[in-house]
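Our platform keeps sequence and structure together, in a single record for each protein. Nothing more is needed to write down the fold, since each code stands for a local backbone conformation. An entry from our holdings is shown next, in its original layout:
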Amino acid sequence: MIEKDTNLEDQALNDVIGKIEKGARIATRKASDVALIAVSKTRGADEIRPLLDAGHRIFGENRVQEAMEKWPGLKADYPDVELHMIGQLQSNKAAEAVALFDYIHALDRLSLVKALAKEMQRQDRQIPCFLQVNVGEESQKGGCDIEALPQLLEQAREAGIMVAGLMAIPPGDTNPAPYFALLAKLARDNGLDGLSMGMSGDFEAAIKLGASHIRVGTALFGPRSPLPA
């Protein structure tokens, strides 16, 4: 999945791939087992196209409406793109999400399980989902409680949803490694392989602890422009 190309014009992409390879070597893993999701939220098509032209094909968005405005056109030009919904998803956006995305990373409650399962059946599309776990027990963050994970997993499977693994966002301003290790343990305990964890500032640690999918934005696209005053 990850292949470094010294001919790539996009140096930021090459730099990230190099760090992925280093982290994988340390963990005695294959870099190809780590999917690099380029987080393109708030980025326009003109910012995304250079990565597409460099050969990258896996992207992530946080908001359904924003993704619907830019990705249908981009997908028409690059039909092999794999698009991931990585932000919180409202149940009333399930139809649009199932139609546009190839993976969903933030399945965290029964109402969303029901909405997604209904739309997958209606649209005849099976979208693999990651169950989001609130590993830091933070009230302001999405994700199911750790104790509720087995029940949510059972509900998703009973609804016919393909569960790809677990996803989490550790608390900010703290060492993320213990939270990555916790998510990995929860995945093992529940018979799951996929681990969506790690962002621009901590993806190397996530890879060392078993991440299968990392979500990287700033390290690929640079800092976001400040909002106008």
About this structure: Confidence is low (pLDDT under 50) at residues 1-9. The first helix runs from residue 11 to 26. The beta strands are 35-39, 58-61, 82-85, 103-107, 129-132, 163-167, 194-196, 213-216.
